Amino acid sequence: MPYDFKKEMKELYSPAARPRIVTVPPARYIALEGHGDPNEPGGAYQQALAVLYAVAYTLKTSGKAGREIPGFFEYVVPPLEGFWPQGGPGAANKADFQWVSVLRLPGFVTEGDLEWAKAAASQKKKLDCGGARLLAVDEGLCVQALHTGPYDTEPQTVARLDAYLEENGYGNDMSPRRPHHEIYLSDPRKSPPEKWRTILRHPIRPAG
C-alpha cells in the first residue's frame, strides 16, 4: 500500500475539535509564497496551487518519466497546507494576505529531484513552476484543533485554542518564523462551506 501521511501520522492529520498539544517533527515541503485574496478566481493563490500540484504529481510519478530517485517509495500526495503570517484566511483585508502554500514531501526528495520536477511540470503543463522551492520547517511544540465550517469562522476555533492554552499554562509563540498553520482536509470545490474541515495549528511555549 502507498505510504499515506494522514494514516501514518494520525496525531498530526486527524485531530479532534478539542484542542490538543502536539510536538511536530521536522518536515519538508514544496512551497510557493505570494500575496493576494485566496478566493480570487485565477488569482495568484489559485495559480500557486496549480503549480504545487503539478510539481507534486510529477515527483510522485517520476519513475514513469524515467527519473529514478534513490529511496523512492509509493506514497499518497498529502493534503494542501498553508502558513499565514497574518493569522489566517478568517482575517480581514484578504487582498493584503501574505501566504506560503505547501505540499508535504517524502524525505527522499532532494533539491535536484525538485528542480527536475519543476522543469518537467513546466514543460508538460505549460506552467511557470520556477517559483516553487524546497522548504524545511521544524514547528516543534504546537497546539491544534479541527475547525469545521467556512474559513471566515476560524476565529471561533482560534478562541478555543487560546482558552485551552491559558487553562494549561501555555502561551502563543507565533512570529514570522512560526506562523499560523492550516491543513485543508476538504476540497472546497466538492463540499459546502459548512462541511469544510481544516486543521488549525499554532506554535506555543510554556507560559512565564
Strand-helix topology:
Elements: H1 5-8, H2 10-13, E1 20-24, E2 27-35, H3 44-60, E3 81-84, E4 98-104, H4 111-125, E5 133-137, E6 140-148, H5 154-167, E7 170-172, E8 180-184, E9 197-206
Antiparallel strand pairs: 1-6, 2-4, 2-5, 3-4, 3-8, 6-9, 7-9, 8-9
Helix pairs in contact: 3-4
Would you kindly provide a written description of the structure presented here, covering whatever features stand out?
The protein is an alpha+beta fold and 208 residues long. Strands 1, 2, 3, 4, 5, 6, 7, 8 and 9 form a nine-stranded antiparallel β-sheet that branches. The protein is built from five helices and nine strands; from the N terminus they run ααββαββαββαβββ. The radius of gyration is 17 Å and the shape is globular. The protein is 26% helix and 27% strand. It has a single domain, classed as Alpha-Beta Barrel (Multidrug-efflux Transporter 1 Regulator Bmrr, Chain A), CATH 3.20.80.10.
**CATH homologous superfamily title:** Regulatory factor, effector binding domain
Structural class category: alpha+beta
Distance between the termini: 46 Å
Helix residue percentage: 25-40%
Order of helices and strands: HHEEHEEHEEHEEE
- CATH topology name, in short, is Multidrug-efflux Transporter 1 Regulator Bmrr, Chain A
Strand content: 25-35%
What is the top-level CATH class? Alpha Beta
